[in-house]
Specification:
With 283 residues, the chain is mostly helical. The protein has helices spanning 3-46, 56-74, 77-84, 99-138, 144-192, 216-221; strands at residues 202-207, 225-227, 232-234, 237-239, 260-265, 269-274, 277-282. A hairpin with a 2-residue loop joins strand 3 and strand 4 (237-239).
Length: 283
């Protein structure tokens, strides 16, 4: 696949991710506003930060809704691109999401909800400690209502950055993972189709948004090429795709990442006729 075509795909996918993030943010703002209100009420009554476990089902639901939106956009990206190469792949119906994608959505939503709520609860504990310390510094009586309001105000002030980070990261990670799952599904489909012969392998290329915000290690990773089932090496860590931590990559390597993995074939497709069937060469 040419550099020009990859640049077009990178720009197109970034635009889609930004739109999906914007769709996700209002529900996240509402969710964190409710947490702030509930924490304030509990602090006034008990002078403690409550466990956020009760918010788990709602956050899982919000994440699953977002992941399904992402799947409807990105589950078809590669299939459409491969069809442009004249390989005969079925186009799926709009709501026909792969079973592997559904499994990923169900499992990842639970994992991420637990992680987000855990970090939020620790953040609230820190805010509470800061509010109490400030009361001592100001030499004022530690009133539950006053401290509770201080906790909520600080939590609300941090909400915008929190929502931005969650919306960006969850959209990026899910989009790149769903694209990878779809790539694997296409490999299986092509392998099972006796009328199509792939004599070269599917590959993937790391594409980086090259702007002033891009971390240096991701600039260095731009245009790195690997076989589909082999990991990239970025910042000295292994990632199957941007946003991947399954092989031990650190959060510093994925947070606020805008990179994109683009799957293609080695060489250009050159269809030739052989008897009654079309055979596809890669040369």
């Amino acid at each position: 696949m040419s550099k020009e075509r990859q640049a077009e795909i990178l720009a197109s996918q970034l635009a889609k991710k930004l739109k999906l993030e914007a769709q996700f943010k209002p529900s996240l703002y509402k969710f964190f506003d409710q947490i702030g209100r509930d924490v304030n009420a509990v602090w006034i009554a008990t002078r403690s930060i409550p466990s956020l476990n009760s918010f788990q089902p709602e956050l899982v639901s919000l994440l699953r809704t977002q992941y399904r939106r992402i799947a409807k956009v990105f589950d078809y990206e590669l299939r459409t691109e491969i069809r442009h190469c004249k390989l005969h792949l079925e186009l799926k119906k709009e709501d026909n999401i792969d079973r592997d994608v559904v499994d990923y959505i169900n499992e990842h939503s639970v994992t991420q909800a637990g992680f987000i709520l855990g970090t939020t609860e620790r953040d609230l504990q820190g805010i509470a400690a800061m509010a109490i310390t400030q009361s001592y510094v100001d030499n004022v009586t530690i009133d539950n209502a006053v401290v509770g309001e201080a906790i909520k105000l600080e939590f609300d002030a941090r909400a915008a950055n929190r929502v931005d980070t969650i919306a960006m990261t969850e959209t990026q990670v899910a989009a790149e993972r769903i694209k990878f799952i779809e790539s694997m599904a296409i490999v299986r489909e092509l392998s099972a189709n006796e009328n199509q012969v792939a004599v070269r392998t599917m590959i993937k290329t790391w594409n980086t948004i090259l702007d002033e915000k891009t971390r240096h290690s991701h600039v260095l990773a731009d245009r790195q090429e690997q076989k589909l089932q082999s990991p990239y090496t970025v910042q000295g860590e292994l990632l199957m795709m941007p946003g991947d931590t399954s092989l031990g990559a650190s959060l510093s390597n994925i947070i606020n990442c805008r990179c994109c993995s683009i799957t293609s074939f080695e060489g250009d497709l050159a269809p030739i006729m052989s008897n009654e069937h079309i055979i596809y060469r890669f040369d």
